[in-house]
Amino acid sequence: VQLQASGGGLVQIGGSLRLSCVVSGLTSDEDAIGWFRQAPGKEREWVATILWTGTNTYYADSVKGRFFISRDNAKNAVYLQMHALKPEDTATYYCAQSMTGGMEVADYDSWGQGTQVTVSS
Q: Residue 121 above 90 pLDDT?
């Protein structure tokens, strides 16, 4: 499985940004795609997950109500729409594939290269 994340950039506090993750090589409808983020000096943390089929989505408490994960199966893409961005959202964002879903880094098998999001005043 290969994943390619894009869409990061510099945004002002309170602004919005949409990240994209193009996925190739999925072999199961049971796969899940998650977004994680890692700020300098901190551990990688889970942000959100969506199943490749069905409607279930899952969010970390820190982003619930501000971030929205979605997918377009026809484009083999998963998106993370981010609103009301805060300085603490600044991080490198990664998309990843899992056969089981979950909130832990170890639950995910393949990773994209990451895209930087910087929230600044």
A: no
